[in-house]
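Chapter summary example: a protein plus S-adenosylmethionine.
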Amino acid sequence: MSSIKQEKIRNHYDTIADTYDTHYDHHRGRNYHTHISNHLINSLPKGRDLLDIGCGTGLFVSKYIEHGGHGTGLDISEKMVVKARKRCPQCDFTVGVGEKLPFRSESFDAVSSLLVFSYVKDPEAMLAETYRVLRPGGTIALCTLGKKLLTAGIPALYQIGEKIKVKHVVMKDFGEYYYNEKEMDKLFTDAGYADVSVKWCSFAHIDMIDPLFNLARKIEPFVEKRVPSLAYNIFVCAKKAE
Ligand SMILES: C[S@@+](CC[C@H](N)C(=O)[O-])C[C@H]1O[C@@H](n2cnc3c(N)ncnc32)[C@H](O)[C@@H]1O
Protein backbone atom coordinates (compact mmCIF):
# COMPACT_ATOMS: atom_id res chain seq x y z
CA MET A 1 0.00 0.00 0.00
CA SER A 2 1.25 3.47 -0.85
CA SER A 3 2.50 5.52 2.11
CA ILE A 4 2.40 8.77 0.14
CA LYS A 5 0.72 11.56 2.09
CA GLN A 6 -1.09 13.41 -0.68
CA GLU A 7 -3.02 15.84 1.53
CA LYS A 8 0.19 16.81 3.30
CA ILE A 9 1.91 17.37 -0.08
CA ARG A 10 -0.91 19.61 -1.25
CA ASN A 11 -0.90 21.65 1.99
CA HIS A 12 2.88 21.95 1.92
CA TYR A 13 3.02 23.31 -1.65
CA ASP A 14 0.10 25.64 -0.93
CA THR A 15 2.14 27.00 2.00
CA ILE A 16 5.43 27.45 0.15
CA ALA A 17 4.05 28.61 -3.22
CA ASP A 18 5.18 32.20 -2.60
CA THR A 19 8.78 31.21 -1.86
CA TYR A 20 9.21 28.24 -4.24
CA ASP A 21 10.91 30.31 -6.92
CA THR A 22 13.52 31.61 -4.48
CA HIS A 23 14.67 27.99 -4.32
CA TYR A 24 14.42 26.78 -7.93
CA ASP A 25 14.56 30.04 -9.90
CA HIS A 26 17.53 31.76 -8.28
CA HIS A 27 21.25 31.17 -8.13
CA ARG A 28 22.13 27.42 -7.93
CA GLY A 29 18.47 26.41 -8.14
CA ARG A 30 18.09 27.99 -11.57
CA ASN A 31 21.13 26.13 -12.89
CA TYR A 32 19.88 22.88 -11.40
CA HIS A 33 16.36 23.29 -12.77
CA THR A 34 17.58 24.40 -16.21
CA HIS A 35 19.88 21.38 -16.39
CA ILE A 36 17.01 18.95 -15.78
CA SER A 37 14.67 20.92 -18.04
CA ASN A 38 17.17 20.71 -20.90
CA HIS A 39 17.29 16.93 -20.62
CA LEU A 40 13.51 16.85 -21.03
CA ILE A 41 13.29 19.51 -23.73
CA ASN A 42 15.90 17.66 -25.82
CA SER A 43 13.76 14.51 -25.68
CA LEU A 44 10.35 16.05 -26.39
CA PRO A 45 8.98 17.20 -29.76
CA LYS A 46 9.34 21.00 -29.96
CA GLY A 47 6.61 23.54 -30.67
CA ARG A 48 3.75 21.14 -29.96
CA ASP A 49 0.96 20.70 -27.37
CA LEU A 50 2.57 19.96 -24.02
CA LEU A 51 1.03 18.79 -20.74
CA ASP A 52 3.25 19.26 -17.67
CA ILE A 53 2.15 17.23 -14.64
CA GLY A 54 2.99 18.74 -11.25
CA CYS A 55 3.75 21.98 -13.06
CA GLY A 56 4.41 23.94 -9.85
CA THR A 57 4.95 27.63 -10.59
CA GLY A 58 5.15 26.98 -14.35
CA LEU A 59 8.94 26.95 -14.68
CA PHE A 60 9.06 24.10 -17.19
CA VAL A 61 6.01 25.14 -19.22
CA SER A 62 7.50 28.61 -19.70
CA LYS A 63 10.80 27.10 -20.91
CA TYR A 64 9.04 24.67 -23.27
CA ILE A 65 7.04 27.36 -25.06
CA GLU A 66 10.20 29.39 -25.80
CA HIS A 67 10.44 27.01 -28.80
CA GLY A 68 6.79 27.64 -29.76
CA GLY A 69 3.83 25.40 -29.12
CA HIS A 70 1.26 25.51 -26.34
CA GLY A 71 1.62 24.60 -22.69
CA THR A 72 -0.91 23.15 -20.26
CA GLY A 73 0.02 22.58 -16.65
CA LEU A 74 -1.67 20.61 -13.89
CA ASP A 75 -0.83 20.63 -10.19
CA ILE A 76 -2.36 19.35 -6.97
CA SER A 77 -1.67 22.69 -5.26
CA GLU A 78 -4.00 25.54 -6.10
CA LYS A 79 -1.51 28.15 -4.86
CA MET A 80 1.21 26.80 -7.16
CA VAL A 81 -1.26 26.96 -10.06
CA VAL A 82 -2.01 30.62 -9.24
CA LYS A 83 1.74 31.34 -9.52
CA ALA A 84 2.01 29.42 -12.80
CA ARG A 85 -0.85 31.43 -14.32
CA LYS A 86 0.99 34.65 -13.44
CA ARG A 87 4.26 33.44 -14.95
CA CYS A 88 2.71 32.15 -18.14
CA PRO A 89 -0.65 33.83 -18.89
CA GLN A 90 -0.73 32.48 -22.45
CA CYS A 91 -0.85 28.87 -21.14
CA ASP A 92 -3.60 26.88 -19.42
CA PHE A 93 -3.28 25.69 -15.84
CA THR A 94 -5.59 23.41 -13.89
CA VAL A 95 -5.72 22.08 -10.35
CA GLY A 96 -5.76 18.27 -10.26
CA VAL A 97 -3.76 15.11 -9.74
CA GLY A 98 -1.61 13.22 -12.23
CA GLU A 99 -3.55 10.04 -11.47
CA LYS A 100 -6.81 11.44 -12.94
CA LEU A 101 -6.29 13.84 -15.81
CA PRO A 102 -9.21 16.14 -16.68
CA PHE A 103 -8.39 16.14 -20.40
CA ARG A 104 -9.80 14.42 -23.48
CA SER A 105 -8.01 11.39 -24.88
CA GLU A 106 -5.32 12.11 -27.49
CA SER A 107 -5.05 15.85 -26.77
CA PHE A 108 -1.25 16.28 -26.31
CA ASP A 109 1.91 15.56 -28.31
CA ALA A 110 4.18 15.72 -25.28
CA VAL A 111 3.85 15.02 -21.57
CA SER A 112 6.46 16.12 -19.04
CA SER A 113 6.86 15.85 -15.29
CA LEU A 114 9.80 17.23 -13.29
CA LEU A 115 10.54 16.36 -9.69
CA VAL A 116 7.02 15.00 -9.08
CA PHE A 117 6.84 11.24 -9.73
CA SER A 118 8.19 10.27 -6.28
CA TYR A 119 5.08 11.99 -4.80
CA VAL A 120 2.57 10.14 -6.97
CA LYS A 121 0.33 7.85 -4.95
CA ASP A 122 -0.72 5.61 -7.84
CA PRO A 123 2.02 5.61 -10.52
CA GLU A 124 0.25 2.98 -12.65
CA ALA A 125 -2.86 5.19 -12.80
CA MET A 126 -0.79 8.26 -13.76
CA LEU A 127 0.98 6.43 -16.58
CA ALA A 128 -2.31 4.96 -17.86
CA GLU A 129 -3.69 8.51 -17.90
CA THR A 130 -0.66 10.02 -19.65
CA TYR A 131 -0.92 7.26 -22.27
CA ARG A 132 -4.59 8.04 -22.78
CA VAL A 133 -4.10 11.80 -23.26
CA LEU A 134 -1.09 11.48 -25.59
CA ARG A 135 -1.71 11.43 -29.31
CA PRO A 136 -0.34 8.41 -31.22
CA GLY A 137 3.41 8.97 -31.70
CA GLY A 138 3.51 11.32 -28.68
CA THR A 139 6.37 11.40 -26.17
CA ILE A 140 6.56 11.41 -22.39
CA ALA A 141 9.67 12.56 -20.50
CA LEU A 142 9.93 12.52 -16.74
CA CYS A 143 12.65 13.20 -14.19
CA THR A 144 12.59 12.48 -10.46
CA LEU A 145 14.92 11.47 -7.64
CA GLY A 146 15.90 7.82 -8.21
CA LYS A 147 16.53 4.86 -5.93
CA LYS A 148 20.18 3.96 -5.37
CA LEU A 149 22.70 3.76 -2.54
CA LEU A 150 23.36 7.50 -2.85
CA THR A 151 19.70 8.41 -2.17
CA ALA A 152 18.83 5.63 0.30
CA GLY A 153 19.24 7.87 3.36
CA ILE A 154 17.06 10.71 2.04
CA PRO A 155 13.71 9.64 3.57
CA ALA A 156 15.38 9.42 7.02
CA LEU A 157 17.00 12.81 6.44
CA TYR A 158 13.61 14.31 5.57
CA GLN A 159 12.04 12.81 8.71
CA ILE A 160 14.80 14.34 10.85
CA GLY A 161 14.51 17.65 8.93
CA GLU A 162 10.81 17.77 9.74
CA LYS A 163 11.36 16.94 13.43
CA ILE A 164 13.91 19.71 13.87
CA LYS A 165 11.77 22.07 11.73
CA VAL A 166 14.23 22.69 8.90
CA LYS A 167 12.72 25.24 6.50
CA HIS A 168 13.26 23.63 3.12
CA VAL A 169 11.15 23.35 -0.01
CA VAL A 170 11.24 19.54 -0.23
CA MET A 171 12.70 18.35 3.08
CA LYS A 172 9.59 16.85 4.69
CA ASP A 173 8.30 13.37 5.32
CA PHE A 174 5.76 12.86 2.54
CA GLY A 175 6.24 9.07 2.34
CA GLU A 176 7.92 9.55 -1.07
CA TYR A 177 8.90 6.52 -3.16
CA TYR A 178 12.07 6.45 -5.28
CA TYR A 179 12.29 4.08 -8.26
CA ASN A 180 15.26 2.28 -9.80
CA GLU A 181 15.80 1.62 -13.51
CA LYS A 182 14.11 -1.78 -13.49
CA GLU A 183 11.00 -0.50 -11.73
CA MET A 184 10.72 2.49 -14.09
CA ASP A 185 11.17 0.32 -17.16
CA LYS A 186 8.44 -2.07 -15.98
CA LEU A 187 6.00 0.73 -15.06
CA PHE A 188 6.31 2.38 -18.48
CA THR A 189 6.31 -0.87 -20.46
CA ASP A 190 3.26 -2.19 -18.58
CA ALA A 191 1.46 1.10 -19.33
CA GLY A 192 1.88 0.34 -23.05
CA TYR A 193 4.79 2.67 -23.84
CA ALA A 194 7.39 1.80 -26.49
CA ASP A 195 11.07 2.83 -26.84
CA VAL A 196 11.39 3.19 -23.07
CA SER A 197 14.75 4.74 -22.17
CA VAL A 198 15.86 5.06 -18.53
CA LYS A 199 18.98 7.07 -17.68
CA TRP A 200 20.56 8.83 -14.72
CA CYS A 201 21.13 12.57 -14.65
CA SER A 202 22.22 15.37 -12.27
CA PHE A 203 25.37 15.51 -10.20
CA ALA A 204 25.47 19.14 -9.04
CA HIS A 205 22.92 19.49 -6.25
CA ILE A 206 21.18 22.72 -5.28
CA ASP A 207 22.03 22.17 -1.58
CA MET A 208 25.79 22.02 -2.22
CA ILE A 209 27.80 25.07 -1.21
CA ASP A 210 28.85 27.30 -4.14
CA PRO A 211 32.43 26.08 -4.79
CA LEU A 212 31.33 22.44 -4.66
CA PHE A 213 28.28 23.14 -6.84
CA ASN A 214 30.41 24.93 -9.45
CA LEU A 215 32.89 22.08 -9.56
CA ALA A 216 30.11 19.48 -9.73
CA ARG A 217 28.50 21.38 -12.61
CA LYS A 218 31.74 21.32 -14.58
CA ILE A 219 32.07 17.54 -14.33
CA GLU A 220 28.32 16.84 -14.55
CA PRO A 221 28.28 15.90 -18.28
CA PHE A 222 31.20 13.51 -17.71
CA VAL A 223 29.51 11.94 -14.65
CA GLU A 224 26.21 11.50 -16.48
CA LYS A 225 27.92 9.84 -19.44
CA ARG A 226 30.71 7.83 -17.82
CA VAL A 227 29.84 7.36 -14.13
CA PRO A 228 26.01 7.43 -14.01
CA SER A 229 26.12 5.58 -10.69
CA LEU A 230 27.00 8.97 -9.17
CA ALA A 231 24.00 10.78 -10.68
CA TYR A 232 20.89 10.87 -8.52
CA ASN A 233 17.90 11.85 -10.69
CA ILE A 234 16.31 9.18 -12.85
CA PHE A 235 15.22 10.31 -16.29
CA VAL A 236 12.71 8.33 -18.35
CA CYS A 237 11.60 8.96 -21.90
CA ALA A 238 9.11 6.83 -23.86
CA LYS A 239 6.72 6.94 -26.80
CA LYS A 240 3.13 6.04 -27.53
CA ALA A 241 3.06 3.98 -30.71
CA GLU A 242 1.85 5.67 -33.93
C1 LIG B 1 9.24 19.74 -6.35
S1 LIG B 1 7.80 20.48 -7.01
C2 LIG B 1 8.19 20.50 -8.76
C3 LIG B 1 7.39 21.55 -9.49
C4 LIG B 1 7.74 21.74 -10.96
N1 LIG B 1 7.56 20.51 -11.70
C5 LIG B 1 9.14 22.26 -11.13
O1 LIG B 1 9.93 21.58 -11.77
O2 LIG B 1 9.45 23.35 -10.63
C6 LIG B 1 6.58 19.18 -6.94
C7 LIG B 1 5.21 19.61 -7.45
O3 LIG B 1 4.39 18.44 -7.64
C8 LIG B 1 3.06 18.74 -7.24
N2 LIG B 1 2.41 17.42 -7.00
C9 LIG B 1 2.71 16.52 -6.06
N3 LIG B 1 1.97 15.41 -6.20
C10 LIG B 1 1.17 15.62 -7.28
C11 LIG B 1 0.18 14.84 -7.94
N4 LIG B 1 -0.15 13.61 -7.53
N5 LIG B 1 -0.44 15.38 -9.01
C12 LIG B 1 -0.13 16.62 -9.45
N6 LIG B 1 0.79 17.41 -8.86
C13 LIG B 1 1.44 16.91 -7.80
C14 LIG B 1 3.27 19.64 -6.03
O4 LIG B 1 2.14 20.38 -5.70
C15 LIG B 1 4.45 20.51 -6.50
O5 LIG B 1 4.02 21.65 -7.18
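Key point: The pocket of S-adenosylmethionine is lined by residues 9, 13, 24, 53-56, 59-60, 75-77, 80, 97-98, 114-116, 119-120, 170 (CB under 6 Å).
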